[in-house]
């Protein structure tokens, strides 16, 4: 009744091709953006529960946003272009360490310390370049074999950032800390400022991604994913399509890595971007929905928040359980939830959302 | 549709669960970052038990600190930096005045929290671990690396090696190899060892072991090939036991291995069985055993079934957990002397740490006699002690085999000054003037 397109006539091609053809979707997205950009800061400012709590902003929303961005990147590669990658953690690490190098300057080549914004973006560019290099094998090998090739990237960069001291500015312990987050004189240090800083990145790149995947390049990616030989016969160049997917994906993952290091952790070592991080991102896109930008957000939210939720609940309810019991319970419940979800809905949360939309269109008179 | 409703209920409930716990008014809150699961649990459990038991003892016996009840809550970090940061954010605002101090128990988490603590005004107590250069309180006002740093440990280990060879002058040309956990923790001693190698003329070599450290075959084979005169071990969790087993497998003499104080507890040697006989480790002043405070804990907690400690009661890391909580609560006590008997804020506790003076008499009174030496911290010295002993595992228990060594401050102070100055420049910190009272 509420959610249907009756009466919305499209009179131009551009209206027909719009990102969100339904008016209700546009209103919902607009409202969500207004809430995220204006509502949450206001609620936080007036300390309205639960937004007045720093914990929500710094330990839940911040990592959620950053990992969503990384998940979008991974989803472009795996979900849209069908190239399985286990090296996402490495690309995050490249983004983080190169942003650090740009942010602290490279006197060897006469490069002064750059401001934070270009550093983060250049970190993403470096990650994209490396992504293209490691994407070259994808022209010859497919599926699980490619996954193994990208796994090599993961271990190689773990090793590189541990061993080559230039990347850590010769810090004795190998742990580096982010430079001050100063964007055109605006020092991003309050939790709400950090949140807005990341939100701006995530919203911008989410729109870029959404528009890329429904444009010509995205259609090429999907053609390659669905059947690469047929795509090639139709005139799509696998070389360009696959490597551009690697470049775009690695760029976003790299920017997310730089944000993770600079904004969330503050100081980090290569372990922050280990193989566990790659797998976590892979699970996010599988649970959220392969080939869906919305799914990236849902998957990131699920993988990140459910363990925290399971961990916090017993102590907040006052259930007397020991810390180890709680954390073992967390593993058990979280694992079973993933199994349950994948059995009930193998296409992830994004599919659940589209099912819900289908049903909403008929509500309240389904047939 | 039902699924959607269920999902929104779950999300709503999770938001509700992160609501600030305001109902704990009047308590002095101490967060406990611990790990009871994962590859480092063997060491994390006894430390957490000791830390929690001492706080529970103060509550049970004295009603808290000077009548102010202690609130504490554990959070499982699994030794992972991002989980540690999440735990810190979760617990820092609890209690009447927020967290009084945080002990991250991981060098990686310490590095991340060093960036956050000044903004939140919460002191970090890193007992025998963390950033070695944070001894310089002028640059690191919020870090308290009480009792010793990895550089202290490196210097003491080298002195013991020298003593076995017959003097520091005998070190020339000797080969000393460091087998280390490839993380900030394991890498910390390297600059100190390099400086000491330059001073005494021994050949230093580092052999990294990847986290979590169950895979060490190639490292020990290369050691067998290289035949160093001594091996230093900087391991944690399962890495320690594995290292000793592998050393036994390649027949490297165990009495030519010295572990840091985090590689010298019972769970590190027991898995290796007889292979661990002769293995040595540094002591962060204390060893295993039961002292005055243990009798109190037995009376007030263990006999009443209020403690999680079992076999680990009186073990090395359990005792270290006790000392950690002892030093932290003494800082709160010191702060209360100045600010009154009410819950202290992080800033006040920081003052307490900086003016901490644990005397012989106080140690005796609290039941820690025989476990630690007097400790005095100040603005310019956030470490307060430079001594350590060496213990040896005889197959059944740890035996103290040396007297106290004092670290070589000629070398280390220079390193502290250099590295902390570098940090100050990087972070645009103007070092405080420690000659002025605050």
Can you offer a commentary on this structure?
The complex is a heterodimer of chains A (367) and B (438). Chain A has 367 residues and is mostly helical. Chain A folds into 2 domains: 23-52, no CATH class; 53-362, Orthogonal Bundle (ABC transporter involved in vitamin B12 uptake, BtuC), CATH 1.10.3470. Helices cover 69% and strands 2% of the residues of chain A. Chain A contains 14 helices and 4 strands. In chain A, helix 8 crosses helix 10 and helix 12 packs across helix 14 (348-362). The longest helix of chain A has 28 residues, at 238-265. Chain A is globular. Chain B has 438 residues and is an alpha/beta fold. Chain B has 2 domains: 24-148 and 288-385, Rossmann fold, CATH 3.40.50; 150-283 and 388-410, 3-Layer(aba) Sandwich (Rossmann fold), CATH 3.40.50.2300. Chain B is built from 15 helices and 14 strands. In chain B, helix 3 (81-91) runs parallel beside helix 4 (107-120) and helix 5 packs parallel to helix 7. Chain B is globular. Chains A and B meet through helix 3, strand 4, helix 12, helix 13 and helix 14 of A and helix 1, helix 2, strand 2, helix 3 and helix 4 of B.
Q: What's the short story on this structure?
A:
The complex is a heterodimer of chains A (367) and B (438). Chain A is mostly helical and 367 residues long. Helices cover 69% and strands 2% of the residues of chain A.
Share in helix of chain B: 40-55%
CATH superfamily of the largest domain in chain B: Response regulator
In percent terms, what proportion of residues of chain B is strand? 5-15%
User: What share of residues are in beta strands of chain A?
Assistant: under 5%
According to DSSP, the number of beta strands of chain B is: 14
Mean pLDDT of chain A: 91
Which two chains touch over the largest interface? A-B, 49 and 57 residues
The parts of chain A where pLDDT drops under 50 for at least 5 residues are none
> What would the principal axes of the Cα set say about the shape of chain A?
globular
Q: What's the CATH class label of the largest domain in chain B?
A: Alpha Beta
Compressed to H and E, one letter per element, the order of chain B equals HEHEHHEEHEHHEHEHEHEHHHEHEEEEH
* Largest beta-sheet characterization of chain B: 8 strands, mixed
Spell out the helices and strands of chain A N to C.
Answer: HHHHHHEEEHHHHEHHHH
Low-confidence stretches of chain B: 9-24
Instruction: Count the domains of chain A.
Output: 2
Major β-sheet annotation of chain A: 2 strands, antiparallel
Shape of chain B: globular
CATH topology of the largest domain in chain B: Rossmann fold
> In CATH terms, what is the architecture of the largest domain in chain B?
3-Layer(aba) Sandwich
Oligomeric state of this protein: heterodimer
């Amino acid at each position: 009744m509420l959610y249907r397109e009756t009466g919305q006539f499209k009179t131009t091609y551009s209206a027909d091709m719009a990102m969100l053809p339904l008016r209700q979707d546009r209103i919902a997205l607009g409202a969500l953006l207004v809430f995220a950009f204006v509502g949450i800061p206001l609620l936080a400012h007036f300390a309205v529960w639960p937004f007045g709590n720093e914990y929500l902003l710094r330990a839940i929303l911040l990592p959620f946003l950053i990992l969503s961005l990384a998940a979008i990147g991974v989803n472009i590669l795996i979900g849209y272009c069908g190239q399985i990658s286990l090296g996402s953690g490495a690309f995050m690490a490249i983004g983080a360490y190169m942003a650090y190098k740009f942010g602290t300057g490279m006197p060897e080549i006469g490069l002064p310390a750059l401001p934070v914004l270009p550093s983060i973006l250049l970190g993403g560019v470096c990650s994209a370049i490396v992504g293209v290099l490691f994407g070259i094998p994808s022209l010859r090998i497919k599926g699980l074999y490619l996954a193994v090739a990208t796994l090599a990237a993961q271990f190689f960069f773990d090793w590189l950032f541990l061993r080559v001291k230039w990347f850590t500015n010769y810090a004795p312990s190998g742990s580096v800390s982010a430079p001050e987050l100063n964007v055109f004189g605006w020092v991003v240090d309050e939790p709400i400022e950090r949140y807005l800083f990341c939100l701006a990145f995530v919203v911008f790149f989410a729109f870029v991604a959404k528009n890329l995947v429904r444009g010509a390049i995205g259609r090429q990616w999907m053609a390659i994913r669905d059947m690469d030989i047929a795509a090639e016969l139709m005139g799509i160049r696998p070389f360009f399509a696959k490597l551009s997917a690697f470049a775009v994906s690695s760029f976003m993952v790299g920017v997310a890595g730089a944000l993770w290091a600079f904004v969330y952790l503050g100081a980090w070592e290569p372990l922050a971007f280990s193989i566990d991080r790659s797998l976590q991102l892979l699970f996010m896109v599988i649970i959220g929905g392969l080939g869906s930008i919305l799914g990236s957000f849902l998957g990131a939210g699920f993988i990140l928040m459910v363990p925290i939720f399971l961990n916090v609940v017993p102590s907040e309810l006052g259930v007397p359980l020991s810390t180890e019991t709680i954390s073992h319970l967390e593993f058990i419940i979280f694992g079973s939830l993933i199994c349950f979800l994948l059995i009930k809905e193998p296409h992830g949360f994004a599919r659940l959302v589209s099912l819900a939309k289908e049903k909403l269109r008929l509500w309240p008179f389904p047939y | 549709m039902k699924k959607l409703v269920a999902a929104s209920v779950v999300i709503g409930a999770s938001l509700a669960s992160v609501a600030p716990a305001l109902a704990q008014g009047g308590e002095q809150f101490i967060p406990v970052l611990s790990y009871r699961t994962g590859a480092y649990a063997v060491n994390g459990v006894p430390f957490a038990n000791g830390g929690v038991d001492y706080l529970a003892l103060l509550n049970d016996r004295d009603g808290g600190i000077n009548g102010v009840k202690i609130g504490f809550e554990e959070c499982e970090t699994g030794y992972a930096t991002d989980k540690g940061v999440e735990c810190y954010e979760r617990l820092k605002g609890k209690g009447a005045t927020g967290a009084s101090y945080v002990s991250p128990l991981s060098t990686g988490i310490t590095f991340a929290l060093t960036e956050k603590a000044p903004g939140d005004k919460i002191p970090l107590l890193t007992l025998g671990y963390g950033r070695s250069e944070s001894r310089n309180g002028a640059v690191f006002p919020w870090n308290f690396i009480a009792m010793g740093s990895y550089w202290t440990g490196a210097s003491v280990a080298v002195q013991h090696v020298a003593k076995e060879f017959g003097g520091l002058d005998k070190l020339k040309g000797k080969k000393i190899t460091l087998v280390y956990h490839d993380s900030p923790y394991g890498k910390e001693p390297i600059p100190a060892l390099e400086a000491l190698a330059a001073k005494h003329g021994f050949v230093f070599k580092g052999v990294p072991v990847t986290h979590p450290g169950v895979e060490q075959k190639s490292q020990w084979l290369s050691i067998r090939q290289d035949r160093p005169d001594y091996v230093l071990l900087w391991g944690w969790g399962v890495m320690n036991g594995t290292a000793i087993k592998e050393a036994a497998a390649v027949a490297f003499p165990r009495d030519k291995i010295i572990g840091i104080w985090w590689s010298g507890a019972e769970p590190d040697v027991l898995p290796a069985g007889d292979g661990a006989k002769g293995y040595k480790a540094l002591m962060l002043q204390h060893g295993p055993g039961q002292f005055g405070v243990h009798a109190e804990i037995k009376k007030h907690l263990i006999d009443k079934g209020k403690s999680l400690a079992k076999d680990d009661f009186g073990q090395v890391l359990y005792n270290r957990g006790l000392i950690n909580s002892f030093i932290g609560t003494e800082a709160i006590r010191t702060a209360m002397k100045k600010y009154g008997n009410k819950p202290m804020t992080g800033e006040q506790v920081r003052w307490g740490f900086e003016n901490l003076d644990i005397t012989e008499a106080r140690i005796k009174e609290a039941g820690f006699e025989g476990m630690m030496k007097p400790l005095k911290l100040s603005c310019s010295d956030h470490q307060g002690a430079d001594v350590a002993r060496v213990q040896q595992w005889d197959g059944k228990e740890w035996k103290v085999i040396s007297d106290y060594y004092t670290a070589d401050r000629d070398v280390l102070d220079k390193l502290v000054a250099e590295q902390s100055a570098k940090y100050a420049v990087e972070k645009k910190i103007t070092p405080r003037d420690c000659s002025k009272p605050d």
